[in-house]
């Protein structure tokens, strides 16, 4: 018996709906995951903000700590900490779509509840890029080496030999089995503290070199006297970095 044209049309619509439904279930782009070659699914997310040189916040509130690297701490005033954060912001501006790849050899969440991930923008591994530019060092927490360990070590050594980033700006220690250790040049050994220029009596800012901008220091609206070697007081009113944050 021949089926009516209406019956054929209904069957065709049903078949197409089934195909679309299957696509919705398996499509990486639609469900927020991408294939990773056997390393587990990589979640697709959007960058909401950058906390520092190795931590980002995702839209929705989750935090991600980039795996196997470490940058100087902003809260401790370590050398190159603000520059490292600015470098990560350049690589991952707000609204950037990223892929977050876990490592089956390593923990997936740290003790602070942050996701531990390699972060990709397009085809670029941001963890490797930061180390290549000297904005972060290699850190194998508990001496555990992940899937990109060899590449991180190679790029880290190259950046150090070329005095890139923190390797040129700071007195930094190369130790892949410990957090980043940096201090301002001229600071006492074993300390992250810096020499303080007398032009800035209420805060501690090292004298040049290098020549610093307001974005390089964690202070605003501070007192400026004398020569002002960093030129923080552009309007000569005795206050530095007014309204810079």
Secondary structure elements and pairings:
Layout: H1 5-26, H2 28-31, E1 33-34, E2 42-52, E3 55-58, E4 63-66, E5 69-70, H3 81-91, E6 97-101, E7 115-121, E8 124-125, H4 126-132, E9 137-138, H5 149-161, H6 166-169, E10 170-173, E11 181-184, E12 222-223, E13 239-240
Parallel strand pairs: 4-7
Antiparallel strand pairs: 1-2, 2-3, 2-6, 3-4, 5-9, 6-7, 7-8, 10-11, 12-13
How would you describe this structure to a colleague?
With 245 residues, the protein is of the alpha+beta class. Helices cover 25% and strands 21% of the residues. It contains six helices and 13 strands. The protein has helices spanning 5-26, 28-31, 81-91, 126-132, 149-161, 166-169, and strands spanning 33-34, 42-52, 55-58, 63-66, 69-70, 97-101, 115-121, 124-125, 137-138, 170-173, 181-184, 222-223, 239-240. Strand 1 (33-34) and strand 2 form a beta hairpin. The longest helix is centred in the N-terminal third of the chain and has 22 residues, at 5-26. The N and C termini lie far apart (78 Å).
Shape: globular
CATH architecture of the largest domain: Beta Barrel
What percent strand? Answer: 15-25%
Order of helices and strands: HHEEEEEHEEEHEHHEEEE
Mean pLDDT: 82
Question: How is the largest sheet built, in terms of strand order?
Answer: 2-3-4-7-6
For the report, how would you describe the main beta sheet? 5 strands, mixed, barrel
Q: Which topology of the largest domain does CATH recognise?
A: OB fold (Dihydrolipoamide Acetyltransferase, E2P)
- Given as residue ranges, the uncertain stretches (5+ residues, pLDDT < 50) are 5-9, 13-38
Q: What is the CATH C level class of the largest domain, in words?
A: Mainly Beta
What level of helicity do the residues show?
10-25%
Extended strand count: 13
Distance separating the two termini = 78 Å
Instruction: Provide the structure class.
Output: alpha+beta
Using the CA coordinates, give the radius of gyration.
25 Å
| Number of domain modules | 2
- Please work out how many helical segments DSSP would assign: 6
